[in-house]
Amino acid sequence: VTKGTYDAAGINAIADALRVNASLTECRLGRNNLGDEGAESIATALKESTTSKLQKLYMNGNGIRAKGAAALADYVAVSASLTEVRAACTFAWLCMCMPLSACLLLA
Fold first, then answer.
1. Is 40 within 8 Å of 14 (Cβ atoms)?
2. Spacing of C-alpha 2 from chain mean position
């Protein structure tokens, strides 16, 4: 899903789907204007998931700031399957929000 604009209900629907999906290995949510609220919802859902096998998460172009970046960092730090994250590191502080081990790939 790229180049969309989602309201809170849409973001929560995506988060709910990610929470229970056991087969998805790559998720591309770039350029959807999710902002911090969306990043937090997505990160929380994935962190709470007991079935996620997500390996790649693309969140480029979503206007994610410190609060959303921190939520993503929390998820990245505990994910057993994630190998690649792209979160549009146009803000240098985004990398600084994440532990070095969690800052796998930001572009």
1. no
2. 14
Query: Could you tell me if residue 24 is left (phi over 0), alpha (psi between -120 and 50 degrees) or otherwise beta?
Result: beta
Question: What would the two tokens of residue 59 be?
Answer: 């969140």
Residue with tokens 């399957």: 81
Contacts of 90 (CB under 8 A, 6+ apart): none
Amino acid at 46: L
- Residue ranges of E strands in the chain: 26-28, 56-58, 84-86
Q: Residue 72's CB: how many other CB atoms inside 10 A?
A: 27
Query: Cβ distance 59 to 78 under 8 Å?
Result: no
Indicate the pLDDT class of residue 66, thresholds 50, 70 and 90: confident
Interval 19-29: pLDDT, tens: 999 999 999 99
